[in-house]
Amino acid sequence: MTGRESMTPPAWQRFSRLRLAQTRWHCLPEQLPEPELPRFERQLLRQLALEQAVMEAARRQSLTATSAQLQQVAQQLAQELVSAGFSADEQQAIVLHHSLMELQLASVGAQADEPQPAEVRRWYRQHADRFRRPEQRLTRHLLLTVDGNRPSVDQQVAGMLRQLRADPDGFASLAQRHSHCPTALEGGLMGWVSRGLLFPALEHCLFALAAGELSEPVETELGLHLLRCEAIRPAAPLPEAEALVKAGDYLRLQRQHQQQRQWLQTLLPS
């Protein structure tokens, strides 16, 4: 091993350095303004010491990441790791490092007290406005991709529109035969759709339709779309039983995070 190789920090430390610069300073470490370097280095040293302490705690518990957990973390970090130029072995080491840290923090969080039913109900009643089901549209969708033959596709869509205006209930049959969307197998049925799930142009069109109404063709980067709003489910409060489950989950998560923060504060002097 050369002197240069022996001085190279482990991959997880280099990744933490990169992440800190990008998340706090929105640049690469080598692009940091010189006046900011001392503050960056102080924060980095504390971050590395904290990660090291978490890893030591994980080793004391003999925590082991499953292949599914490793795969999940690998997917979460894939874009960052590839764009940063880490080798396959380095990526594997970083994924293992972060997987074990997640397991250790989950173990700490699991020690938090469970919220009691009376507490959950009281908190839910104080925050009932948070527990609403958004407006939803029961939607059918038909997509025709455009592969260099736009006039032919335009003509095909126009013909479908004529058919559907004459027979609105024929949408499912047309979608099954002609749509290039996976929903074709279900007659174009997308199910109940909330805002924020579709391309903006499709969402704007869908939520302007009345129940039973057919859209004009909508163009996106995928191709030409037709939408049919089968029914409208207005925004409404969630059923209390469902809301109480969500409230309990929220309080449980908050307690776990608090437990983790308190534990992390014990690892290093302030």
TrEMBL record:
Enzyme class, broadest EC rank: isomerase
Gene designation per UniProt: nifM
Keyword Isomerase: yes
GO molecular function, one term: peptidyl-prolyl cis-trans isomerase activity
Domain PpiC: 134-231
Top-level taxon of origin: Bacteria
Family: Belongs to the PpiC/parvulin rotamase family.
Known EC number: 5.2.1.8
Pfam families: Rotamase (PF00639)
UniProt entry tagged with the keyword Membrane: no
InterPro entries: Nitrogen_fix_NifM (IPR014282), PPIase_dom_sf (IPR046357), PPIase_PpiC (IPR000297), PPIase_PpiC_CS (IPR023058), PrsA_foldase (IPR050245), Trigger_fact/SurA_dom_sf (IPR027304)
Organism, as annotated: Dickeya dadantii (strain 3937) (Erwinia chrysanthemi (strain 3937))
NCBIfam families: nifM_nitrog
Keywords tagged on the record: Isomerase, Rotamase
Cited PANTHER family: PEPTIDYL-PROLYL CIS-TRANS ISOMERASE HP_0175-RELATED, PEPTIDYLPROLYL ISOMERASE
UniProt protein name: peptidylprolyl isomerase
Catalysed reactions, semicolon-separated: [protein]-peptidylproline (omega=180) = [protein]-peptidylproline (omega=0)
